[in-house]
Amino acid sequence: MSPASKAASGASDWRDVPLAPIVLLFGPEDYLASRARENLRAKLRASDPELELSALEAAQYTPGALAMVASPSLFSEPKLIEVSGLSAMTDDFLSDAIAYLKDPAPDVTLVLWHSGGTRGKKLLDALKACGAPRIECQALKKDQDKTQFVSHEFLAARRRIDNAAVRALVAAVGANLSELAAACQQLISDTDGLVGSDDVDKYYGGRVEATAFRVADAALAGNAALALSSLRHALATGVDPVPLVAALAMKVRQVAKVFAAHGSSAQLARELGMAPWQVDSARRDAGRWTSEGLVAAIKALALADAEVKGASRDPVYAVERAVTLISNSARR
C-alpha cells in the first residue's frame, strides 16, 4: 500500500506502530504481523521493562477471558494483550471485544490480528469508528513491492544496495517474505560497504530464480556465449527448463511493453504494471532490438514453452534453441 493510500485509509506503517490502547493488524502476511508486534513490544518495553505480555486465540476463545487478562495485576504493571485468529473468532469473542471497546482497561494495550475476510465485520467497523490504528499486513505479491521492502530493510540498517543487487535478491528469494527478510539481514551482517549483485550471487546465485534471470539477462543483451554457458551450468546443476523459459518470457514481454512506449520511468511503471527499475532495464535492452527481432523471440518462446511442458521429448534442446535464437536476434 502506498503512503497516500495508507493515509486515506487511516492505516499505519508496520515498521512504526503507534502507541494506542487498541491496535488492529489486518492482512494475511504473518511475517509483517510478527514484525509489527515486535515493533510495538519494543516501544512498550522501552517505556516500562516490567511489561506483562498475554496471548489469546480468538478462534478458541472462552467467555470472559479478555476481561480477566486485562484486569489490573497485583503490582499494576502495564499489559500487552495480543489476540490472533480474528478471521475465525468465536461469537463470544466478538461480543466481549465489542464490549471492551466501549471501556478499555487502563495501562493495557490490546493488539488484534485479523488475517482477512468478512468474519467479525461488526468488530472491524467498531474499531474504525473508535479510531484504533490499523496496520496493513498484506502479502507482497508484486516485484515492485518486494524491491521496496528490500530497499527499506537496507535503509533501516543504514546500508546501501544497488538496484541490480535488489533485483537479483528479489529474483532469488522473493517468493517468501520471511526468507527475503532473512536474506537482507544476512547480507547486511556479512558484507561491508555497498552491496552489489556479485554479493547476492555469492550467497544466493544457486537459487533457481537467480540462475534463470542470469541466463535471460545475457540472452536479451545479445551475449550468446554467456547466455549458453550460464544455461548449461544451470541445467548441469539441476535447474528445470520450465523456469528458465519463464524468465526469458518475462524479460521479452517487458522489452516488448516498453519498445515503443514514451514517458518517464515512473509514468510507464504505473501504466504497464512494472517497477521503475524494470522499465529502465527493459529500455536498455530494447535499444538492442528491432520489432522483427522481438516477434521472432516471442514466437521462439511460445514454441519453447510448449516443448518444455511436454510437447517435445527433449526440453533441454528446446530451451537451448530458444536462448540461441534470442541471443542472436539482439543487436550487439
Topology:
Layout: H1 3-9, E1 11-12, E2 22-26, H2 30-47, E3 52-57, H3 65-70, E4 79-84, H4 91-102, E5 108-114, H5 121-129, E6 134-136, H6 143-156, H7 163-173, H8 177-190, H9 197-204, H10 208-220, H11 224-236, H12 241-258, H13 265-272, H14 276-286, H15 291-311, H16 315-329
Helix pairs in contact: 4-5, 6-7, 6-8, 7-9, 7-10, 10-11, 10-12, 10-16, 11-16, 12-14, 12-15, 12-16, 13-14, 15-16
The Cα radius of gyration reads 25 Å
Distance between the termini: 40 Å
Strand-pairing-aware structural class: alpha/beta
Q: What number is the mean pLDDT?
A: 87
Do you know the CATH architecture of the largest domain?
3-Layer(aba) Sandwich
Largest sheet: 6 strands, parallel
Q: State the low-pLDDT regions, or none.
A: 1-9
* Number of structurally distinct domains: 3
The CATH superfamily of the largest domain bears the name P-loop containing nucleotide triphosphate hydrolases
What's the count of strands? 6
Assembly level: single chain
User: Which CATH class of the largest domain?
Assistant: Alpha Beta
Strand order of the largest sheet: 1-6-2-5-4-3
The helix/strand series, from N terminus to C terminus, equals HEEHEHEHEHEHHHHHHHHHHH
Strand content: 5-15%
CATH topological fold name of the largest domain: Rossmann fold
EC number: 2.7.7.7
Family: Belongs to the DNA polymerase HolA subunit family.
Keywords: DNA replication, DNA-directed DNA polymerase, Nucleotidyltransferase, Transferase
Catalytic activity: DNA(n) + a 2'-deoxyribonucleoside 5'-triphosphate = DNA(n+1) + diphosphate
